[in-house]
Amino acid sequence: MKHSDFQIGTEFFTFAGRWRCTDVGTRVIVAISLEPRETVRLWTDATGERMQETFINDDPRNLIGPPYSVAELVFDEYDLDGCSTCADDFVDAAIEADVLAAKARFQERAERGYGKTERGLELLRKAMSE
After folding, report:
1. Cβ contacts of residue 41 below 8 Å, gap of 6+?
2. Which residue intervals of the chain are DSSP H helices?
């Protein structure tokens, strides 16, 4: 995407998920993530002990602002090439990342000796070469 494609409220995608533009600067874009996020809640109980609760939060009220109760991230001119209005632009990259991770797991299993038979090693080598 280009800088001129952004307006406040524009929703877009990166490899990290869906975002909403919250500000357009001269050279940067500011946005909030619309993905579920880890939230930490701190409080003091009746005995004075400090308590902490961590959970995944997707409450849409967190996305109302400004000010927002979620962190805003700055995208500079180098980040804009990694933005798209279509989530499908990132599907192939995600699949490729999964394939590379699977190959790494196969390699690790082979190095640990899980493919001890000749046939097992042959299958692991074949999977690694694909």
Report:
1. 52, 53, 54, 55
2. 91-111, 118-129
- 90 pLDDT tier (thresholds 50, 70, 90): confident
- DSSP state at residue 119: H
Report the SS3 class of residue 4: helix
Give percent of the chain above pLDDT 70.
78
Q: Residue 67, preceding bond cis, omega within 30 degrees?
A: yes
Give the position of tokens 């700055």.
74
- The whole-angstrom separation of Cα 130 and Cα 116 is 21
d(CA 36, CA 57): 6
pLDDT grade, residue 94 (50/70/90)? low
Bond into 36 cis (ω within 30) = no
53-83 burial, b at 16+ Cβ within 10 Å, e below that, comes to eeeeeeeeeeeeeeeeebeeeebeeeebeeb
Q: How far apart are CA 26 and CA 123, in angstroms?
A: 55
**Do residues 103 and 123 make contact, with C-beta atoms less than 8 angstroms apart?**
no
